[in-house]
TrEMBL record:
It comes from the Eukaryota. This is DNA-directed RNA polymerase RBP11-like dimerisation domain-containing protein. The lineage of its organism: Eukaryota, Metazoa, Cnidaria, Anthozoa, Hexacorallia. Keywords: DNA-directed RNA polymerase, Transcription. Belongs to the archaeal Rpo11/eukaryotic RPB11/RPC19 RNA polymerase subunit family.
Length: 159
């Protein structure tokens, strides 16, 4: 392992702690302590993990492309998918005390290890943030370009 990689791993270990549970062999339940974090990450991560709580049945996965179905059928397929067995049973967070700059994140699953669910949630949240940043930067550039070109569009709202 290179010196840079060791430094990154030490930083991660300092900021993320896994609390011991009653059964050390049970990987489906875990409480993670995220140091130097607050409600911003806690609520966003909880939302992302619970958003993907339900899986679409294998028989419907090939047909969930919105372009291949009329809107009503697509909505029915998505509705049916919500009644499948969830991977994540519970995901919640708490701030132990307002003066402590950390959050406790609890994940309970029906099979996959809680660490994998956390890893997937962090990856999806990172991708979402990168997309939002790129979209914002594009909009700012378009706005600057339109200002320079004198393309002012006044929007009127009718109340």
């Amino acid at each position: 392992m290179a010196a840079g990689e060791a430094g990154v791993e030490q930083e991660i270990n300092r900021r993320l702690e896994v609390m011991p549970t009653g059964d050390p062999d049970d990987e489906t339940c875990a409480t993670f302590v995220l140091h130097e974090e607050d409600h911003t990450l806690g609520n966003s991560l909880r939302y992302i993990i619970m958003k993907n709580n339900y899986r679409i049945p294998c028989c419907l996965q090939a047909h969930t492309n919105k372009k291949s179905f009329p809107n009503k059928i697509y909505k029915i397929i998505l509705c049916l998918s919500l009644h499948c067995s969830p991977d994540v049973v519970f995901c919640g967070y708490s701030v132990p005390h307002p003066s402590e700059n950390k959050i406790n994140l609890r994940i309970q699953t029906n099979g996959p290890p809680a660490v994998d669910v956390l890893r997937r949630g962090l990856s999806e949240l990172t991708a979402l943030c990168e997309h939002m940043l790129a979209t914002f930067e594009t909009a700012v550039e378009e706005h600057k370009d339109s200002k320079q070109n004198g393309d002012f569009e006044m929007s009127t709202t009718e109340d």
